[in-house]
Amino acid sequence: MLDVISEPLSYEFHESKDFYKNRLLQAKLDSKFINRLFNAKEIDTAEMPFTKVKKATILLNEDSSKFNSLVTYKLKDGKEELFSNKPFLYDNNIKCLYLSNYSREYLSKSTLKNINKMFTDIEELEIKNSKSILEFNLDDMIKVVDFFRHKFINFMTYRTTLLELNNFIKFVAKEYKSVGIEYKIEWNYKKLIKVVPDSEKPSPFLEGSEIVKMAMRSDVAQNGIVLILLLNGLKLSRIDENDEIRFLKESDIKDGVIHVGGKFPRDIKLTPREFSLIQDAIEEEYYDTKRNWLSVIPRTGYLLRPYGENKTKTNLTEVGIQRRIDIVADKFSDYICDRKFTNLSIRTAGRIRFMDGLEKVGYTVEEAAYLSLERFGDIESGTNILQREKTEKEYYMAYKIRKTYSKSKNNG
Asked: Which of 45, 78, 142, 396 has the greatest number of beta carbons closer than 10 A?
C-alpha cells in the first residue's frame, strides 16, 4: 500500500488555517482533524485518516492555486521507501491521491507503476497544452489517443492506458462531488475509442490459442486446466446430470484422451501441450496463495480439487470452478480487454478452433458446425450426423453456430 506524505509544511501553510477552516467545515471535516492538519510538521496518511486527507486535498486544490505551492505530496510504501522521487508537473497532489487510493483497493504494484508511467508520459501533452489532464476537453483527448496510438502501436496496450485515464477522471469527479464541487466530464472511453480505426481493434472473440496461453501461464495448473476442459467442449453446469467437469476423475484421462461420461459419452483427444498441463494439475500438491503461505491441494480422485488439507473426499463445486475462471480473468484482464471471458465464451472459442481445424482438412462450414455438436456434447456422438436426416433442433443449433462462426471471421 502506498501512503501520501508531504514535504515539510511551511509556516505560511500553518498560518493559513483560518483562511481555509470554514470551507473545510462546510465539507464536513471536523475541527479536531483541521487543527491537526494545520499544526502538523508534514501530512502523512500513515498517521492521519486517508479519507479526510483526500477530502481536504481535493477541496483546497480546487479552491486555491496557492495550496499546491505550499504542499507537495510524495508517495511511500510500507517500508518507508519513496515510490517515485520526481513530483508530477501538473496536479501532482491529485495524482498522488489517486495512486494511493488505488493501492488501497487493488494492491497491484505492477499496475501502480504503469499508472505512474502513464502520468509521466501524459506530461508531454500537458506541457504542450499548458494545462493539466484534468482540464482536457474531448478535442484535447483525441490528440491523447493519437499520441498513445503512435507510442505503443498495439491496441491492447494503449487501450489499457485510455481506460486508466478514464478511471482517473471518474475518480476526480467522484471526489469533487463529495466536497460539493461539480467537475464536468467532457469525454469518456467510449467517445475516445470511436476515433480508433476498426482495423486496429481486436476481434471481440477470444481465440483458442490465446486461451491456451493463459491456461499455460496461470499461477496454478489447477486453475489453468479449467480453460482447457471448456475449450475442448466439456460442459460446466450446476445441474449434476448436465455437468461434465465437476465429476471428472483422474482415471478418466489417459494417453492424451479425456473419456467423457454423462448424458453424451465421448472421447476427446487433447494436444500434447494441453495433456501435459493436465498431468501437472494432477500432480500439483500446493497452491501458492501469494501471501507467504501454501495451501495444500489433496488428491481426491477428481481432476479438479478444492484447496485445503481437510478437503480429501470432495470435488469442486460449480461456483468454485467459476471462481477459478474469474481468477484467470483477473490475472490477464489487461490482455482480455473488453472481451467476454466466461464459461460460454471459452467454449465458443474452442468451437471456432475445432471448426477451423475441420475446414483445413476439407469440411464445409455447415459440416463442421454439425460435427461440433457431437464434440461439444450438444447431441449424441457416433450417430453419423453428416449422413442422416437432421432434427429441427439440430438444424437450428447448427445454424446459430454457423452464424457465430461467420461473425468471428468478420471481426465481430
From this structure: 45
